[in-house]
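Field reference: sequence -> structure
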Amino acid sequence: MKSTPHLYISALPFSPVQSIVYTEFSLKYSNLAQIIDGGEPYWPSLQLSIRGNDHDVVSITFSPDGKRIASGSKDKTICLWDAETGLQLGSPFTGHTDSVWSVAFSPDGKRIASGSFDKTICLWDAETGLQLGSPFTGHTDSVWSVAFSPDDKRIASGSLDKTICLWDAETGLQLCGPLTGHTDSVYSVAFSPDGKRIVSGSRDKTICLWDVETGLQLGSPLTGHTSSICSVAFSPDDKRIASGSLDKTICLWDAETGLKLGSPFTGHTDSIWSMAFSPDGKRIASGSKDKTICLWDVETGLQLGSPLTGHTNSVCSVAFSPDGERIASGSYDKTICLWDAETGLKLGSPFTGHTDSIWSMAFSPDGKKIASGSLDKTICLWDAETGLQLGSPLTMHTDSVYSVAFSPDSKRIASGSRDKTICLWDSETGLQLGSPFTGHTDSVWSVTFSPDGKRIASGSLDKAVCLWDAKTGLQLGSPLTGHTDSVCSVTFSPDGKRIVSGSRDKTICLWDADTRLQLGSPLIGHTNSVWSVAFSPDGKRIASGSLDKTICLWDAETGLQLGSPLTGHTDSIWSVAFSPDGKRIASGSRDKTIYLWDAETGLQLGSPLTGHTDEVCSVAFSPDGKRIASGSLDKTICLCDAKTGLQLGSPLTGHTNLVCSVAFSLDSDHRIVSGSSDNTIHMWHYPTDTVVNLHSDNMSRQASYSLCYSSIPSHALVDSSVYIPESDFNVRALLKLDSGGWIISSAGHLLLWVPSYIPRPSLYSPFRLFVIGKHTKLDLSRMVHGSKWIECNYMGHIGK
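Structure field:
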């Protein structure tokens, strides 16, 4: 430890608390950093990552005894691996002249069958790697799937030539057929456990069942999927068939009647390329183009835990070990991963929910929940106090979710999507209320509730505004037409009697919410798309922000423009907001600045607020009107004093991609929520006065500016002046890791290293209440550092 103290000292507290290394040494070396929140109880569920193939690994299978794994690759070879160590066993099996798309062990584990794009099936000695006989020829196109019969006597193969062939596993001779019935490529074949039937899945979106002895098709094709079927499997008890499809779902079927059992399993965000039953038939594992493996309960259809993440490209193949304790997965990232099937369920992070950019967020009016809409087609609900996800993601939309809004009583959520629909959800149960609202003919960009909660207004790329009964979902009259291009933003007036809409046609329209008639002519003044509109709190004025770099003010009664456009920005304006008292307007722009304006005179108040280094996407006033929060393409949130325009502290950092949306909580808890294209939501606490203090108690200035990664002030690092000079109040710069995993001061002093085997956490800061995503809190109060590192040994420290 004396040679590389930081590395070994840092590794110990980050080790899982149930691990041998932690239980053995944590008491002996107790004067270290301690993880008080965000640690793991066990080692990660990913047990082993195997890399050896030169190209994508597209097929894997366990040997019947679970000791070996065979893999097929686009490099035209089959490789054999030790399932415990991950070491390659012997040299690759060579003989195919094109990609190997499927591999299968014989039931006795002595042979391996492989199917290739070279249109052949090869048989191999699993011990020696020698090819047994000549390739099996008969298909006229690529072979995508091979399977042994349970009695070891037959091999079935499925091909792009739309047929299934049956082969004698000893002689290689073709037994009857080919089996014809599919109208497109056959991607997957499997024998039933009793060996009497074969199931096949095809690009023609159907599943077919076949009699092995006669080669005849049993009944009609099973239909239900809406895209190609890439994987099929019988349950171990022979009673059910599972199918995975490019439509992102898994379906279960009764193997006798062919009837579909229950609803499709939904959760993946891209095509499902492979799936497998566990040996006891209680679970299904699925691998997807979304780079994840999901586990499912066969009886309920519910997803078990969070997706298993670790691959960096599509997961093409998954398999359970014979004892059901492990899952192997093969990927286009050229690796094979091995997972603990039990701890994989326990270790899913409770704070991850979305798998793509978050485009919209909203606090419930009672401040208890947050709703988020994402490009992953789902809405997630979160507890605004703890950051925990409330239930599973809300799935029904079939494309990106662009907008979410709570009803005034916090009981319902409306969501607008690229799939052209609006959905209504119960915010307590997460259940969809009725069917999707249909009427728009293009993407829905904006949704909002009326102040009384009885109506919903939506704006769409179809150039129309629609009004809906929030209880029944019925459209109220015809769409409100008047715009000649996409509607980017809609909102109700505070009294609920009018609706204002901003459009890419450069105009703003006003509508009577009761009669649905347009009030006067469109408001003309902008020379480019209107991206944001807002009513003043008293409902008398409207502010609009445009790509023409200006803000316009309008009389909400007469539609007349109030004065000249507000000029000052040098690029497009993405967001405008009124202060709660209606006296000021804030605008955020592509020019990287926020401007403050006098809502009465239109005069600019002070200089532009600078602090962001890229476009400002969203601005919001705090409920008391004293602060402005802004989110930017520079991945940060800035907080400004709304009166003086001065920036309060350094930008809030933690997101790893652009911040699309910011919002203040409406209660008195002083919280800001931010949504980002990094797929996470962060919650921040903002100070109650204009002086930024790390702690709210009466600690001395030196203690207040100590390094702290916890919500408890006493967890701060003692004697941290080497990292934060007394004159340097920019402590937030130390609330993150560098690319190598170090916490490092501006002067280059190393404090702590997070080991490379730990997923990069987001360190807690006193300004961040929680992160919907992984976060870690540290107690540094007993940590020795710098020249005192040798005192990390508890007994040595006591002896001094």
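Note: The chain is about 5% helix and 40% strand.
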